[in-house]
Write a structure and sequence with these properties.
Blueprint lengths: L1 H12 L6 E15 L6 E12 L4 E14 L4 E12 L10 E13 L4 E13 L5 E14 L5 E12 L15 E16 L2 E12 L6 E14 L1
Parallel strand pairs: 1-11
Antiparallel strand pairs: 1-2, 2-3, 3-4, 4-5, 5-6, 6-7, 7-8, 8-9, 9-10, 10-11
InterPro entries: DUF2490 (IPR019619)
Protein name: DUF2490 domain-containing protein
Organism: Crenothrix polyspora
């Protein structure tokens, strides 16, 4: 495992290494969240269309609803479902992946300007025509509000790790236990209102492809967040 982690870090630092493929994408994340007027209960919905192949081809849609509970001022727990539709002209959305998701999130204001979030997700992934897989995700996120301004800076890093291998069906040997991918993002945001903000920036997605070239996906990511 340590060798894998070291290889991942080296790969992120040197994007031009051999045996790697490069792509460019545009992802647009729309999130809606409510605590029902200040209650301990939460509801969350994310809609995310994605485009790749030089940003011109629609290839994926993610729909992710969650219901959660505020355990403490800083700690939240949620259960949810994710529908990840991989689109192509032949199969349309027939090969969509359906995930059950358990999530724990810690949110803390380290200073009046600096917000820190840690998010852990555990996913049970039901692939079309393939065995069930289990994946965990760790995300560390920082947001810095620029004093006397509606602008803010945001950065996060998220690591994906498969806990088992799929050795039969359509995804035979392409899903293997170990590091699946890593996403690193830096962007600039604007607080439109106290309940609406938007940020946009660059995300590097590294995908560890078993049995073929790894992928470096250069993503322009935009997040629209609405709280009510």
């Amino acid at each position: 495992m340590m060798k894998k982690i070291l290889a991942l870090c080296l790969g992120l630092a040197v994007s031009g290494v051999s045996l790697a493929d490069d792509d460019t994408s545009i992802w647009i994340s729309n999130t809606y969240q409510t605590d029902f007027g200040g209650s301990k209960y939460l509801a969350f919905l994310e809609l995310q269309p994605r485009f790749n192949k030089d940003d011109t081809k629609f290839n994926q849609l993610i729909i992710r609803p969650f219901f959660g509970y505020k355990i403490t001022k800083n700690l939240q727990a949620s259960l949810g479902f994710a529908w990840q539709g991989e689109y192509n002209s032949k199969d349309k959305f027939d090969l969509a992946t359906k995930d059950l998701v358990e999530q724990v999130q810690w949110i803390d204001n380290l200073t009046p300007q600096l917000n820190f979030q840690y998010r852990f997700r555990l996913e049970q992934r039901f692939f079309a025509d393939a065995d069930l897989s289990h994946r965990m995700r760790h995300r560390f996120r920082f947001q810095y509000s620029i004093p006397e301004s509606k602008l803010f800076l945001v950065a996060f890093d998220e690591l994906f790790i498969y806990l088992n291998s799929v050795n039969s069906g359509r995804l035979e040997y392409s899903v293997q236990s170990g590091i699946n991918q890593n996403r690193s993002y830096f962007g600039v945001g604007y607080k439109v209102t106290p309940n609406v903000n938007i940020d946009t920036g660059y995300q590097l997605q590294y995908v560890n492809n078993f049995g073929k070239e790894d992928l470096y996906n250069h993503v322009w990511l935009t997040n629209l967040n609405i709280n009510f």
